[in-house]
Amino acid sequence: MPVSDEPIFPDCKPASPNAAESELPLTDRIRRLATGQLFGVLCTQGQGQPYGSMIAFSFSDDLGFAIFATPVASRKYRLLTECDHVAVVIDNRPQFPGNMMKVEAMTVTGRAKEIEPGEGFDEYSRLLLARHPQLESFVNAPSSALFRIDVFRFFHVGRFQEVSQWVPPIR
Q1: Are 11 and 151 in contact (CB under 8 A)?
Q2: How much is the average pLDDT of 48-67?
Q3: Could you tell me the CA-to-CA distances from 84 to 1, 44, 55, 112 in Å, in that order?
Q4: Would the pLDDT of 152 be above 70?
Q5: Angle 55-115-31 (CA atoms, 0-180°, nearest 5)?
Q6: Cα angle at 32 between 71 and 140, to 5 degrees?
Q7: Residue 117 CB burial class (10 angstroms; 0-12, 13-18, ≥19)
Q8: CB 143 within 8 A of CB 71
Q9: pTM, full prediction
Q10: Nearest Cα to 1, choosing from 151, 166, 154?
Q11: Number of structural domains found in the chain
Q12: Quick one: average pLDDT of 41-67?
């Protein structure tokens, strides 16, 4: 999916091989947050207002998409069906309560699409349930919907103010 409808942020550093030797490459730091944290904040919008909601998520191996579930009878679901542009914020604050310089966060931007039964639903639900097996009855309930976020870009923040961006390869 092309990223042409997202603005380019020239002040952000792109993924670069010139990182300090003791620092992991940007893609590894992004992967560490994506696989090391179980929850994030989904950012949606509706009627000109932003809205944030907690989600349990799972990313694909190539970080090109993320999966989450939500109740159909919720504001989150309504907002997702009204506007598919979303962001997810994931951070590791609880690991470093006394040292903000070690805290890392990322904002993942993309588009959300509901996965209907028969459109790979079983494959996507297995990906989510591999990380969150306690959600099995929720994910499979008729009152829940499964969503896939096709990732446009990752914005990674480290050392409190160093912002870098990475765009996963287009599928």
Answers
A1: no
A2: 96
A3: 13, 8, 16, 5
A4: yes
A5: 50
A6: 20
A7: exposed
A8: yes
A9: 0.86
A10: 151
A11: 1
A12: 96
DSSP assignment, residue 126? H
Residue 1 one-letter amino acid: M
CA 31 vs CA 77, 123, 166, 169: distances in Å: 27, 21, 11, 14
Please check whether residue 72 lies inside any domain of the structure: yes
Kindly report the three-state secondary structure assignment for every residue of 86-120: EEEEEECHHHCCCCHHHCCEEEEEEEEEEECCCCC
155 forms beta bridges with 107, 165
Is a pLDDT exceeding 80 seen at residue 15?
no
Evaluate whether residue 45 is within a structural domain: yes
The one-letter amino acid at 113: K
Q: Give the structural domain span for 58.
A: 24-162
Cα 89 to the center of its chain, rounded Å: 7
